[in-house]
Amino acid sequence: MLAGGLFIIFHLAYAAWMDKQTYDKTAHENFKEMNKIMVPASLLPLVAGLWLIYMFPMYYVHITLIAALFGTFAGGWFGRKFGADGMLYGSCSGFMAGIMAPMIGTMSSHDPLLLGLVQLLHIWGTALTVLPIDKNP
């Protein structure tokens, strides 16, 4: 249970650091804006919801509510840089990821491989949305 809490704290700190890296570098282009909002806003509550349902499998309803609220706030946090529309979009996608996380965790029979894959996807996906990619190699 301590390891789960540490992993949640790690992912929160990682998301906060990545958010700080992009605060001044945001380009307001519609196709990039949606990706920069949706990837971290969806994957962070997914990771948190999976960890929580793995740690407390008997509290399914409570974990679903916590993950949904966390996803709503995390999505709003990532979407705030892009105005009211971005905040609304981020909140909705975070809410949906928070609702789905306990369902996915329960249906996968608490498979640690799924948890590791989602954590790697969160780190890799958020890094890809934040770090600049050179178009001309």
From TrEMBL:
The chain crosses the membrane at residues 39-56, 63-80, 86-106. It comes from the Bacteria. Keywords: Membrane, Transmembrane, Transmembrane helix. This is Uncharacterized protein. It comes from Salsuginibacillus halophilus.
